[in-house]
């Protein structure tokens, strides 16, 4: 039987993106080709854990929950069985969101919404990897974190349902400016029309109410002037920075 290594699965509400607030079943795979310095799911990347779960069991589990299903990670696109799972879930009538960093192509993958989180340069864990005595982790991440050709291919493949989510640093104006410059360069390189800019979300870095609120306020002007969308992080406001939410 075909299986996926699953780190956790739970039912909650979507906390980010265009479907924020929608009751959803979350299936989180374990395994990632990146090592973001601020990764909020380190048990799928820095210290991966989980168990193999047969696709039949996952389909049955999702059938007992909401219509909306989120396949997330880690990086689901690394695992070829994710394509079969996506096909089966959509055939069963689920609305499927697939969360990806946009660095890997998964042949046969289906999705109603492809939620792409390209990683900016501040995500590279130079100091963290060095402190662990594993500098190659940072080198690996930096080499893989951004693939403009693949991003364009994903947007074309899922033209009817895509979003780009960028984590931005808002604790200092110069950091936000640097991140916005990178995002603007990516949007320009992808030749996104002005009408599509509301599919580009700015998500302030932070894991508590106060930090996020300050981040939202700091990012508002950039949204106004550029046409980007402010990306809320509802799950943190509701449950805190807690697994399984």
TrEMBL record:
Q: What residues bind S-adenosyl-L-methionine, as annotated?
A: 38-40, 74, 117-119
Binding of Mg(2+), residues: 41
**Catalysed reactions, as listed in the record:** 6-carboxy-5,6,7,8-tetrahydropterin + H(+) = 7-carboxy-7-carbaguanine + NH4(+)
Record's keyword annotation contains 4Fe-4S: yes
Pathway stated in the Swiss-Prot or TrEMBL entry: Purine metabolism; 7-cyano-7-deazaguanine biosynthesis
Reported EC number(s) for this entry are 4.3.99.3
Record keywords, A-Z: 4Fe-4S, Iron, Iron-sulfur, Lyase, Magnesium, Metal-binding, Queuosine biosynthesis, S-adenosyl-L-methionine
Sequence ranges assigned to domain Radical SAM core in this UniProt record: 19-229
Q: Which PROSITE patterns match?
A: RADICAL_SAM
Residue ranges annotated as coiled coil are none
The cofactor binding remark recorded in the entry reads: Binds 1 [4Fe-4S] cluster. The cluster is coordinated with 3 cysteines and an exchangeable S-adenosyl-L-methionine.
Q: Which cofactor does it need?
A: [4Fe-4S] cluster; Mg(2+); S-adenosyl-L-methionine
Listed GO MF terms: 4 iron, 4 sulfur cluster binding; carbon-nitrogen lyase activity; magnesium ion binding; S-adenosyl-L-methionine binding
GO BP: any one term: tRNA queuosine(34) biosynthetic process
Asked whether the keyword Iron is assigned, the reply is: yes
Where does the source fall among the domains of life?
Answer: Bacteria
N-terminal signal peptide: none
Binding residues for [4Fe-4S] cluster, per the UniProt record? 32, 36, 39
Binding positions (substrate): 13-15, 28, 72
- Of which family is this protein a member? Belongs to the radical SAM superfamily. 7-carboxy-7-deazaguanine synthase family.
What is the role of this chain?
Catalyzes the complex heterocyclic radical-mediated conversion of 6-carboxy-5,6,7,8-tetrahydropterin (CPH4) to 7-carboxy-7-deazaguanine (CDG), a step common to the biosynthetic pathways of all 7-deazapurine-containing compounds.
Q: How does it assemble?
A: Homodimer.
Query: What is this protein identified as?
Result: 7-carboxy-7-deazaguanine synthase
Q: What is the lineage of its organism?
A: Bacteria, Pseudomonadati, Myxococcota, Polyangia, Nannocystales
């Amino acid at each position: 039987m075909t299986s996926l290594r699953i780190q956790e699965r739970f039912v909650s509400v979507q906390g980010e993106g265009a479907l924020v607030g929608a009751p959803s079943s979350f299936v989180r795979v374990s395994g990632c080709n990146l090592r973001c310095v601020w990764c909020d799911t380190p048990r799928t990347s820095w210290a991966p854990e989980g168990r193999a779960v047969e696709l039949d069991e996952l389909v049955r589990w999702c059938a007992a929950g909401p219509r909306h299903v989120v396949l997330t990670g880690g990086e689901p696109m690394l695992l070829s069985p994710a394509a079969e799972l996506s096909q089966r879930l959509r055939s069963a009538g689920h609305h499927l969101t697939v969360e990806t960093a946009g660095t890997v192509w998964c042949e046969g993958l289906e999705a109603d919404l492809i939620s792409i989180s390209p990683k900016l340069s501040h995500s590279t864990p130079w100091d963290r990897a060095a402190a662990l005595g594993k500098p190659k982790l940072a080198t690996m991440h930096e080499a893989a974190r951004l693939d403009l050709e693949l991003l364009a291919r994903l947007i074309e493949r899922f033209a009817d349902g895509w979003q780009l989510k960028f984590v931005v640093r808002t604790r200092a104006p110069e950091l936000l400016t640097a991140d916005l410059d990178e995002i603007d360069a990516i949007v320009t390189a992808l030749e996104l029309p002005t009408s599509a800019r509301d599919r580009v979300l700015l998500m302030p870095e932070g894991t508590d109410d106060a930090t996020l609120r300050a981040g939202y306020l700091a990012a508002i002007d950039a949204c106004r002037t550029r046409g980007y969308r402010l990306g809320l992080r509802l799950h943190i406001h509701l449950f805190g920075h807690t697994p399984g939410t």
